[in-house]
UniProtKB/TrEMBL annotation:
Organism of derivation: Leptospira yanagawae serovar Saopaulo str. Sao Paulo = ATCC 700523
Domain Copper-binding protein MbnP-like span(s) in chain numbering: 43-238
Protein name per the record: AZL_007920/MXAN_0976 family protein
Domain of life (superkingdom): Bacteria
Length: 281
């Protein structure tokens, strides 16, 4: 991808040089046009997601949290969509996600960070964005509302995975994280849209529970790591009677939903709740 990108830039640069050199007197408008053409060139996007426990990548066995608790995982998957890079003035540039019909399709990518439920993992989100200087990144954890109630049995991967589909009234599981502190009692955090109506497709969900994550800082478009801090996700959570954690199920699940920065009552992002799960690395 990087080689192809360099070749594209070289070809266009030669063309632009020739165009300018043949015009002895270049009008200001011509220079502006050439500048816009250069800015329109896409550059490759390569995001790499990693889940960390006490600063270390999660393993398939026992992991030790910073508070000395042990934790194991049997699922750690998230849908990522609506990726944008943020400029210094606050404007954004949309990332066009590539399509492989395995991990990415229809502008949606599936990040899979463990191997208990699946034999393969995927830490990459790939695509392209216009060349520019960016000071942040924004993405959504979840499937876009327009795609959330598709028939998963006839979709391209990764939207055809039955274990990532919640129900016909809720659509996909935007995030599916299952963990245990003792290897016996499992907590399943399933984030998905709720309070959906409009049979038979149930596309009108008043509580979307799609986390919009904004991370500020110097970003490397072609090679940027994004960390998921498990210690911060599990802050304030202890295993209780509620092993199935879905939005609206109450304590001890509420703290898990709030780690994404979402309001547990209406399923929207809440400016009074700082998401604590994701960070640039």
């Amino acid at each position: 991808m990087k080689l192809l990108h360099l070749i594209k830039i070289s070809i266009v640069s030669v063309f632009l040089f020739g165009f300018v050199s043949c015009d002895i007197i270049s009008e200001p408008s011509d220079n502006q046009t050439l500048a816009l053409l250069a800015l329109a060139l896409p550059q490759s996007v390569n995001l790499e997601f990693e889940a960390l426990v006490n600063g270390q990548k999660i393993t398939s066995g026992t992991n030790t949290l910073s508070d000395s608790r042990s934790v194991q995982f049997r699922d750690f998957r998230l849908y990522i969509s609506e990726v944008k890079f943020v400029r210094a003035d606050g404007s954004t540039a949309d990332v066009s996600l590539s399509t492989d019909n395995v991990w990415q399709a229809n502008g949606v990518s599936l990040v899979d960070l463990e191997t208990y439920r699946t034999t393969e993992t995927n830490i990459k989100v790939n695509g392209s964005v216009p060349i520019g200087s960016y000071t942040g990144i924004q993405f959504t954890v979840g499937v876009p509302a327009a795609l959330n109630h598709l028939n998963s049995t006839n979709q391209s991967s990764p939207l055809n995975i039955g274990s990532m589909y919640w129900s016909w009234t809720g659509g996909y599981k935007h995030a599916n994280i299952e963990f245990s502190y003792n290897g016996t009692d499992w907590t399943s955090l399933h984030l998905g849209s709720t309070t959906c109506s409009g049979a038979p497709n149930y596309g009108n969900c008043s509580k979307k529970f799609r986390a919009i994550i904004l991370l500020s800082g110097q970003v490397n478009v072609s090679n940027q790591k994004i960390s998921l801090d498990v210690d911060k996700l599990l802050t304030g959570h202890t295993y209780g009677a509620m092993g199935m954690c879905m939005p609206g199920t109450g304590a001890p699940c509420d703290s898990l939903v709030q780690a994404f920065g979402m309001n547990i009552s209406n399923g929207a992002m809440d400016s009074s709740i700082t998401q604590r799960f994701f960070s640039l690395r």
